[in-house]
Amino acid sequence: MAKITINGVEQAVEDGLYLIEAARRCGVDIPHYCYHPGLPVEGNCRMCSVEVEGIPKLQTACTTIVQDGMVVITDSEKVVGERSDVMEFLLRNHPIDCPICDQAGECGLQDYYMEHGLHDSRITVSEKVKKKKRVDLGPNVVLDSERCILCTRCVRFCKDVVGTEELVIKNRSNHAEITTFPGKGLVNPYALNTVDICPVGALTSRKFRFQCRVWYMKNATSICPGCERGCNIWIDHHENKIQRLRPRLNPDVNNYWMCDEGRLDFHWINDDRVLRAEGPDGLMRPDEADRAVLALLSNPGDVLIVASPRSTNESLFALKRFVEVALPGAALTGGSFRPTGDDDGFLRLPDKNPNSRGMREIGIAGDLENRLNGSAGVVLVFENDLLGDRPDLESVLAGKKVVAFTSNRTATARGADLVVPVTTYAELNGSFTNHAGLRQEFRSAIRPPGDSRSVFDVVKSLSGLLGKELGWESETALTKEMTDVITGWGVRVEEETELHAG
Amino acid sequence: MIEETKVLTSRIHKKDSHTLESYREDGGYEAAAMALAMDPDEVTAIVKDSGLRGRGGAGFPTGLKWTFLPKDRDFTYLCVNADESEPGTFKDRVILDLDPHLMIEGTVISCHALKSEHAFIYIRGEFCRPYRRLVAAVQEAYEAGILGDNVLGTGRKLDITIHKGAGAYICGEETALLNSIEGLRGQPRIKPPFPTNHGLFGRSTVINNVETLANVPVILKEGAEVYRSRGTEKSPGTRLFSVSGHVERPGVYELEHGVSFKDMLNDICGGVKGGRALKAVVPGGSSVPVLTAEESMKLQMDFESCQECGTMLGSAGVIVMDETTDMVWALDKLTHFYAHESCGQCTPCREGTGWVAELVHLINQGRAKSADFDKLIDLGTQICGNTICVFSDAVFMPVMSYTTKFRSEFESKLIDSAPVHEKVGA
Ligand SMILES: Cc1cc2nc3c(=O)[nH]c(=O)nc-3n(C[C@H](O)[C@H](O)[C@H](O)COP(=O)(O)O)c2cc1C
Ligand code: SF4
Ligand code: SF4
Ligand code: SF4
Ligand code: FES
User: Fold this and answer.
1) Where do the domains of chain B lie, and which CATH numbers do they carry?
2) What confidence tens digit (pLDDT) does each residue in B92-105 have?
3) What is the ipTM, given to two decimal places?
4) Is the dihedral of CA A279, A285, A291, A297 positive or negative?
């Protein structure tokens, strides 16, 4: 531990920390642009300069390592003056596009100008340096060179986090620009993280640009369902539509990052949803649907229930209990035919389901293929697009009565005799257990569309009709029992750490 | 009447002075043979005793710099800074072009002192003939067994790699130079760590200027004491002055440190061009504060006198400006250069140098107001003190000195300056 004095207050901090991080832990925020805790330091923006006793020149807090006895001042006239100078320089050639800029509202320049600039413009004459306004760096990321403050966060991300080194700076002086090598693009599967860490509106996501003003959006903590890593995310939504997904800091899982595939995979939640239950005779109310399902359950021995590693622990736990108490004799199986990917050594893992481990630990057998080939005449498929993943199963399912509990109009839904809408993870409080056995909770972000119900509500209603009790008053009670009985699943309290906007 | 003291430049007027044969005729590589027979620390001690100071700009004591290398290092590089790009400085070129073996011998001796087996020479890309001659000289040295696996028959190893720059002034800054050799973007590194601890490819590295190293064989040959007999106490030895501008005979002249500027101007350079009056002098390359004619008459050409005079000897690039010089025009040219050469990583330097250049240009064109001039002065101070390298100071110093010492010239070009108002009123 090192004792340092920040603005007159003596504090003990860990050895080896950069001053900027040490100060943050002591509750003193030092403004910064180029510094990002997930990247190596570069010290180029000069925004974080502070006074260190005994050194005549200002020192950049992001490159200075704390030393025992260090005396630091972060709010002297000199420091404040320097910040304002840096702001003035940063804005010298900045286009101030705020009215049309996607970053407005979460922009490092706007925020710090209000906090540390507030100078009058002294740009008396002439033109700003003109640069390209729309450069397609790659399939997902668009660059506005004029807005760039050359902090090199994006460059360092590609070089030091992903290791692909697509981005570089070309040219010197105020003609310096972010670019890729000739003929190459920003194509790494994590490229959109550069948009998050870009402190200004220079890098924008092609999918998100011009879609929604950030101040309209609300955010909910969630978990990406894209693979068994379970990256922690924010769901940013507006008017009950998801606008974007962003990574949420979790040093044990995904740090500050997530992959582009996971980030961009949310349109199925907004679009093409099943809103009403549907049977051979057309649309049904939920109670009609439940009775139609019930009619198929008269012989439990003929019923196969297919669970999915895309369902939450809570849904799976409820389903298992449902079979045990209300439908003894019916077979319960789980699994997925989703094509697997590669372990790329960073975040993405082969199993593209978020909850395979949770399903296993709850005790749902994974003998899906065998069971499907068995004799069951009625198959209830919960959140599992069997036919989408394996079109060849059509012949297997052909002779059976299929009920699809699904959020979307999947191939399985199209081939089913009965379709019942259920919620997605974005409309649920729940949890997934990732590949490492970490049970991660998330909150519902948006309201379920149409008649969508949670699997819990569906099976609760079905058991009611069967005259059985699942035994929980609420989902909270379910969660409690589940986390009590499964070892290692004790409730984890998520620390709500916001990514630094700037 | 003073004269040149030709120590480093004693051979440059000879025919084929750049060849190994010619160099050997004059006792070339004898100092190296002598040094290699000594203990490396002994060589360092001699260089330290000589009081040799770096010729690249900062004037840092060379022997002292060498002792900063950590004792427990496992590998050391020497980088020779032959990037010579400071406006007004063109003396390294003379050595590279006319006596490259002198510098190579300095490198051989220095590498022995530093226990280095690999030296890099970073040469300015625009130096065409000097580059060809340097390459040829290194080749000759390899063939003659001066470089390679058995340096001068001692069984020691030394390789020299020549790296050509691509035209960036900033690559003369020592850590930008290291980046450039490594194939990275040529921009200065944050210090600490210093190159002596973490330099080229992460290893202990010493960077020295061409002229600095050219002094080393001389020091070894004649001993520290004789070497110190020239120049002044704090600036021992001779210096290659690059004199340009309004003088009758511009060129590179070798003089003892401490000569008076006046004598240099009149005796060596034939006085101000056309017998006109002197107006201003830049004594140490474009980055140091300018002096008025009056100040320059009291100036002695050594590190300490320059400092007393409020300027620096820098790289000893002497730019002489006579009464016909428009100082605003001169600063316009200079700031244009700096605005173009900032590496662009630090916010104040990247944005500030461009802004400064723009304002000076406006003033020069007679399109600026006094508010612009005030802004220029402000910017001068805003730029420096908070950047990764001292490039920003190199912009600050000329801006502040030109605008202070020749203020009226700037003011008279402002739209709202007093004389203009009078004219309008009349
Ligand atoms: C912007 C800038 C440009 C420089 N350019 C050169 C140069 O062209 N040649 C040089 O020898 N030193 C140059 N230097 C100084 C070097 O950084 C370094 O101090 C020098 O090479 C050390 O050698 P010395 O101790 O032998 O002088 C420059 C420094 C700065 C800040
Ligand atoms: S980057 Fe920030 S300051 Fe610049 S235009 Fe966008 S919102 Fe405005
Ligand atoms: S694009 Fe954004 S992250 Fe990249 S250097 Fe510019 S401002 Fe920084
Ligand atoms: S001061 Fe200027 S030249 Fe030096 S590192 Fe910063 S931007 Fe580059
Ligand atoms: S220089 Fe420290 S945050 Fe940029």
Assistant:
1) 20-228 (3.40.50.11540), 238-322 (3.10.20.600), 327-411 (1.20.1440.230)
2) 999 999 999 999 99
3) 0.92
4) positive
